[in-house]
Design a protein that fits this description.
By secondary structure, the protein is α/β, with parallel strands linked by helices. Helix content is about 40%, strand content about 20%. The protein has 11 helices and 12 strands. Strands 6-11-10-9-8-7 form a 6-stranded parallel beta sheet. Helix 8 (about 205-210) links the parallel strand 8 and strand 9 (about 215-220).
């Protein structure tokens, strides 16, 4: 998802937003001939993500800038670690600084919290997945950061897979069809490659969904006891996803119920930006 084209389009838009008519501070205070060296330094521990995005912020500002990435996406780092070194025209480095930092701090924050969830379920075989609760326009960046932290991606958009929730099922069954009949009928209008997931919030809803040959059943806001019962009822006939009420305090217990996937909206909607700093030195100082 994080292709060069996506990076360029999004970073160019951010640079235009931040300096629509140029960086008047740098242009007024910094000689045009000045060059600078800047180090991206970790102020706290974390997991790195967004190296290509960080680099693009500088190179797209001025192609004379060179960005030497010292950390790769997915690397863990400690306070004081130098994650990248940027060299080139001082004005351009100062112009790109905030955009580059905003992206890499946000993405590394997501990678770090994702890694904490992945670590919490280690040994269970459960996948930690994101959701569509992402910042509009930045989904590809945030989804990439989840993968940097060892997590997995859910469907990228509404166009990628079918996910039937309670409101969808209410409309489907309004014609008098049972849930099973309605799902089977819906499948006739889909390509054979389309994956179908159905959300349930009670154990007694599971069998009707399985009878339609659904690929994934989402158990939404189930207690650990009901999750175990649901996993036993599904009995490997579909992938079982748990969602709702997931935190670092609860994720291990959820994983130990035997579910296959745990989706966590907090990976993207609640992750804080990490404290990373850009220490700039004007060459010759």
């Amino acid at each position: 998802m994080l292709s060069p084209a996506v990076i360029e389009t999004t970073v160019r838009a951010a640079l235009l937003e931040d300096a629509p008519w140029g960086d008047i501070t740098s242009e007024a205070l910094i000689p045009a001939s000045a060059t600078a060296t800047a180090e991206l330094v970790a102020r706290e521990s974390g997991v790195f993500s967004g190296g290509d995005v960080f680099s693009a912020a500088f190179v797209l500002t001025d192609d004379r800038i060179e960005a030497d990435m010292r950390a790769e996406d997915g690397d863990r780092f400690a306070p004081g670690d130098v994650l990248a070194v940027v060299t080139g025209p001082a004005r351009a480095i100062l112009t790109a600084e905030r955009v580059g930092l905003n992206f890499v701090q946000r993405m590394s924050g997501i990678a770090t919290v994702t890694a904490a969830y992945v670590d919490a379920v280690a040994g269970t075989g459960v996948r930690i997945a994101d959701t569509r609760k992402t910042t509009p326009g930045l989904r590809a960046f945030e989804r990439h950061a989840v993968r940097s932290g060892g997590g997995a991606n859910h469907r990228h958009s509404l166009s990628d897979a079918v996910m039937a929730k309670d409101n969808h099922l209410a409309v489907l069954t309004r014609s008098g069809l049972s849930v099973t009949e309605a799902l089977i009928d819906a499948k006739t209008r889909l390509p054979h490659t389309a994956h179908i997931e159905v959300e349930v919030d009670r154990l007694d809803q599971i069998e009707a969904v399985l009878a339609a040959g659904i690929g994934t059943v989402m158990l939404d806001n189930f207690t650990p006891a009901d999750l175990r019962a649901g996993v036993a009822q599904v009995a490997k006939r579909a992938t079982v996803e748990a969602s709702g009420g997931v935190s670092l305090d609860t994720v291990r217990a959820i994983a130990e119920t035997g579910v296959d996937v745990i989706s966590v909206g907090a990976l993207t909607h609640s992750a804080r930006a990490l404290d990373l700093g850009l220490d700039v030195r004007i060459d010759g100082d």
